[in-house]
Amino acid sequence: MKLLHVLVLLALCRAAAGSIEGMKRLYSDLFGNYSTNIRPVYNQSQHVDVHSRFNLVAITEVDQVRQILHSNVWMNITWRDEFLTWKPEDYSGIKFMHPPLTDIWRPKLIVPVSLEDRDVFKDDTSSLTVYSDGRVAWFPGANFATGCKFDLTLFPFDVQTCQFQFLPVSYFSNELKMISSLVSANTQGYTENGEWSIAASRAYINERTFVDSTRSFLYVDIDLERRPMFFVLNVIIPVVVLSFLNIFVFSLPCDCGEKVSYAITCLLSLTVFMSIVSGLLPKSSDNIPMVTLYLTCLLGISVLSVVATILIVMKDPAKVKKENPQSPLFVIPSVCSSQFPGSRRRVMDQVHLDSKTDDSAGNASPTGKILEGQSSSGGYCVTADSLCLVIFTILWMVVSMGFLIQITQ
């Protein structure tokens, strides 16, 4: 039994020694006259086909103010090197090898839209494998910082398209052609982002002509859909509630002393939310977000309500307020009457005038018993507060419904 173990151990040692010697001999035969400056085809009039696959690992940051997309990307790049082929049986059965990146020809890819170093695949620690049939598999990875044009018209219910471009430098399209292995980006190993989700992606090849040369580009388009709930819950809903509460300033009586301060407080609150939203958006006038227009309209309504409140208080002296306070709510007119004699104060003044006239004649007037808020002609009185309440409510509803319709479309 011990003899069997010794024989197996000797066989393994011989196989290992044979593999080591075979690897040394293989490396010497392949790279003895190899040059990394020559395209790996015997017929130099032919082009090299470089197959690529875009693997999106994560979206690390989306800076929409500076319009920069930060991402983590891996690439699967394969091509055939006609200078690196061998028969495995001639070299102890070796079918593949892992030479250093600096010892083999590679397509040098740059990212033209990168905002940092364009040569993002210059890391020499990435994996590279050469197979016996000449197929080379290279797996470079990098953190990208690419420019992305954001259209924030439908913010925060928007979908943005960011594009990655890969250009093999130093070679024209008749020398090197990029081929996309997939029609979309590979997101099997993608780590979900809390703010953005991937709606769709596309990968394709396009040849672009520059003066007297044509180059092959690899394009990858990523459609990023924003997750809007955070912004809706923390900005839009509070703004809508504040703007709605602002309308109820006209339901407060003028003698309460807080009518103007209530309107100004709502105006300042809307101004604070406007500053928060402006800090989240890029400083650009190309595409004005609908939410900015909506907040601006609400701010305008709030300003008008403050002005209307001040005018109402100014036109209501303290003496008149004590004798004839205005009705705090708008009264719906009766079905049988369409007459609106004017404000309640005017009607009651007419009632008092009629009462004095009748008293001087010695007659008791039944008009002195007119119900409060109703005129002698059967119509209902409309105060300045109640009229403004109805007007600003309708205006708020029109603006809010218009914003909702535009967003849903």
Report on this model:
- This protein is of the alpha+beta class and 409 residues long.
- The protein has three domains: 34-227, Neurotransmitter-gated ion-channel ligand-binding domain (Acetylcholine Binding Protein, Chain: A, Distorted Sandwich), CATH 2.70.170.10; 229-324 and 385-409, Neurotransmitter-gated ion-channel transmembrane domain (Methane Monooxygenase Hydroxylase, Chain G, domain 1, Up-down Bundle), CATH 1.20.58; 331-382, no CATH class.
- It contains seven helices and eleven strands.
- The chain has helices spanning 2-31, 229-247, 259-280, 290-314, 318-323, 344-361, 384-408, and strands at residues 48-63, 68-80, 96-97, 109-110, 127-131, 135-139, 141-147, 159-168, 176-180, 196-210, 213-226.
- β10 and β11 form a beta hairpin.
- α2 (229-247) runs parallel beside α4, α3 (259-280) packs antiparallel against α4 (290-314) and α4 (290-314) packs antiparallel against α7.
- The protein is rod-shaped and about 105 Å long.
Quickly describe the structure.
The chain has 409 residues and is an alpha+beta fold. Helix content is 35%, strand content 23%.
